[in-house]
Amino acid sequence: MKDLLGIDSEFLKECKIVDWAYTEELRPKTYEYYLEWVAKDLHGPLKYLSDERKDKRKSLDEVYPGATGALVFLFDYRPAKNLLNSTDPTNKIAAYTLGFEGQDYHLWIREKLESIAKNLELTDYGVSLDVHPVLERDLAFRSGLGWFGKNSMIINREFGSYFLIGSLILKEKLSLNTKPIEPDHCGTCTRCIDACPTDAIIAQTRTIDSAKCISTFTIELFKDAPAPAGYPTESNEVFGCDICQEVCPWVKKSLGQEEMESNWLIEFFNRPQSEIYEEVSALSNKKFKEKFKHTSMERLGKRGLLKNLKKV
User: Fold this and answer.
1) pLDDT of 249-289, one tens digit each?
2) Which of 97, 155, 158, 288 could form a disulfide with 149 if both were Cys (CB 3.0 to 4.6 A apart)?
């Protein structure tokens, strides 16, 4: 197997990887806090966090028997946020929806992880994304890639939090150095907490009340449902939410000038909400899937997107 450090840096750049680390710690450092969070029903409608997969999250080898460690990668979507900031679309969508060539990031990142595994000549490994029963933010934390911000996001001193986490779960140990745990750098700052219009951030535990979170409402609820109290109709959040990241000093500091090319989704949402609602309403479910195929919105479905548009 090749040494990871021998991979061409241009290849990693093409994969939009801005940082990576190696860890042999299989057990999450925050697992007990996670159990307490679920016990208080703060996962809300996200039932996949409290079902039988809950126990699997206590260790990587529960998910990938024989696991010895992981390579953890940060996939950058800051250029997509720069593009959104410069275009300021009428209706707001989370930057990650654009950041991976407009594709659903699960598909895009899995492909890149498998390319890395092939480059490293790995033959027995697992791929971990946020759809797997792995506490992926804890995995990044114990790998030394950042700290838990007060909004529960992993924040990296150089790259902020506009990234997604993808990992290769290994079944053999590597001769790689590990990084120390990153200390907290939030200090007394409460900007993310103060900015959240629905009061979804629980400051004391750096967790989220999922039932109050705008991202839960706009991404995870596929049918008609009442918006959380405080839902900001004036900012037209129609898919996801970046509010708590937008105000973070570490995230602002990480943003540069690099933008990605424009994306049809920006044009689609950069017009009056009534026009979008009318167009989506006229689509059959089949046509909706065809139009949004391989984008993050395909999973939400026609009914879910109409629900979001009605609330803005």
Assistant:
1) 999 999 988 888 888 999 999 999 999 999 999 999 999 99
2) 155
Query: How does residue 5 score in pLDDT terms, banded at 50, 70 and 90?
Result: low
Instruction: Supply the pLDDT for residue 312.
Output: 53
* Cβ–Cβ under 8 Å, residues 217 and 225: yes
Instruction: Give yes or no for a contact between 222 and 300, defined as CB atoms under 8 angstroms apart.
Output: yes
Q: Are 136 and 186 in contact (CB under 8 A)?
A: no
Q: What is the pLDDT of residues 26-82, one digit of tens each?
A: 999 999 999 999 999 999 999 999 999 999 999 999 999 999 999 999 999 999 999
Domain boundaries, the chain: 6-79+102-170, 191-310
Task: Compute the distance between CA of residue 32 and CA of residue 260 in angstroms, rounded to an integer.
Answer: 40
Active site residue 130: yes
C-alpha span between 23 and 169 (Å, rounded): 10
pLDDT tens digit string along 122-144?
989 999 999 999 999 999 999 99
- Percent helix, strand, coil in the chain (nearest 5)? 40, 15, 45
Question: Of residues 61, 88, 130, 194, which has the active-site annotation?
Answer: 130
The Cα diameter of the chain in Å comes to 57
Angle between helices 301-310 and 273-282 (to 10 degrees): 160
